[in-house]
Amino acid sequence: PKGTMAFTGKYEFEGDENYDAFVQKIGLPSDKVEMGRNCKIVTEVVQSGNDFTWSQHFPGGRTTTNSFTVGKEADMETMGGKKFKATVKMEDGKLVADFPNYRHTAEISGGKLVEISTSSGVVYKRTSKKIA
């Protein structure tokens, strides 16, 4: 395993693609849909080797935190607040997780955090810029 701390940092939402189509596909309740639209979510990642703490701070003070170790099953929470178990894998420098109804990848590309969620052919892409 590489000793890089590639993911560690704070990232602020910059833009997304296909949000509406994606949240419809995964059946997100409409109040959550509005809350998440162009939402200045700040994603805070602490990486120590294969151990990650991944927090999303929403405007208004709500925070969702998932802690996991690459290759080990962990308890996670979805965008909509559902709890589930997932094993996060590292593939070509990307973190890959299978959520109950979508596949999620995250990578650092050009200094930005790029997250892609795919559900039945609908691809949602979210880009966040590094702020700390």
UniProtKB/TrEMBL annotation:
Keywords from the UniProt entry: Cytoplasm, Lipid-binding, Transport
Domain of life the protein comes from: Eukaryota
Protein's UniProt keywords contain Cytoplasm: yes
First-listed, main subcellular location of the protein, grouped into a coarse class: cytoplasm
SUPFAM superfamilies assigned to the protein according to its UniProt record, in alphabetical order: Lipocalins (SSF50814)
GO molecular function: lipid binding
Cellular component annotations (GO), alphabetically ordered: cytoplasm
Pfam families membership: Lipocalin_7 (PF14651)
Subcellular location as annotated: Cytoplasm
Domain (Cytosolic fatty-acid binding proteins) ranges: 9-26
Family, per entry: Belongs to the calycin superfamily. Fatty-acid binding protein (FABP) family.
Name of the protein: FABP6 protein
Organism expressing this protein natively: Platysteira castanea
Gene, per the UniProt record: Fabp6
